[in-house]
Amino acid sequence: MSLEKLKGRITVILPNQYVRYALVPWNDALEGEAEEQAYLRHHFAKVHGERAKGWAFRWSDGLASAIDKHLLDDIKRRKNVVSIQPALMAAFNAARTKIPAAGAWLVLADEDRTCVALYARGKWLAVQNARGPWGEILERERHRTATAVQEVMHVQ
Amino acid sequence: MFSRPRRLELDYLASRRPTRWPGVLVLAISLALAATLFGRWREAQVELARLEAAGMVSFERRAAPVPEARLAEEAKAAEAVVRSLALPWAALVRAVEQAATRDVALLQLQPDPQARLLRLSAEARHREAMFAYVRRLSAAEGLAEVHLVSHQVNRDDPQRPLQFSVQATLR
Which residue among B10, B107, B114 places its CB closest to the CB of A85? Predict the structure, then answer.
C-alpha cells in the first residue's frame, strides 16, 4: 500500500488492562449482531457479574474479548481510526506464523499485568489476563490446564 | 496435518455479519416473551402491594449484605474505568496526527496509561522524514521522552519505505 493510502488509517491497540478475554464455544443457532452480543454478555456476566452490561464484545475462533462501551465510543470519535484491536489480537496475528505445530503459550507481559494464552492444535485452550508477574501466572495456568505444551513465546 | 493458524478477528471496527431473518425472528419472539413476562411480573407486584396494604400479608424487606471482597473488587473495577476514560484519546490521536508530515504515515497507536507510555509505529519515505517526525513528536503537547525504538526498510515495497517504531511518555 502506498504511503498516501496508508495516511489517515490508524490502528489503535488496546492494552490488556482494558480488555477481558474468555474462551466461549460458538453456538450455531446465533444469528446477527444483537444475539451474538447477548450470548457473549451472558458468558462474561457469569464471571464478572453486572459490569458486563456496559461492555462490547467480539468473538473469533473460540476466543472472546470484552471492552468498556464508553472507552470504545471515545476512540471511535476519531475518524482516522480504522481499527481497534485488543492487544492479544495484534500480538497473535503478528506471531501466528511462528507458532509451532504442537502449540505454544503466548505471553504478553506489561508492567504489572500479564496475559497468557494457550494456542494448540488450531484452537484456543486457555486464556488468562491478570495482574502479576508473567512467570507466576503462566505456571498457574499450566497447572490448571495440565497441558503438555512447553513452548513459551513472548509476544507484543 | 497442521495448517497455519487463522487470524484472530476481534477488531471493534470491522464490519459484522449481516442480520438474517431467522435471527430477527428469534429476537422478536424473545422480546415478545420478555414483554409478556414483564407484564405478569408487574401484575404480581401490584397484587402484592394491594394485599400488603390491606394487611393480608407482610414482608420483611432486608437488603442482602454485600460481601466486602466484592465491594473492593467493584471499587477496583470502577477505578480502572475512570482511569481509562481519563486518558484523552482524542487529544492523543490529534497530537500524533499533528506531528505527521507529508512523508510519514502513522500506522499504529498503542497507549499504555498504566505505565504512562505511548508506542506507535509508522512508515516514512526516507530517513530524514523519520527523524523529522520524531523531532515533531518530541515537540507535541502531551508527549515527552520521545525516542526511536526500531527501524527497518520494508523490502516488500518497491519504494523501500522505512518502517519504524517510537516510544514516548504521556505527560
Answer: B10
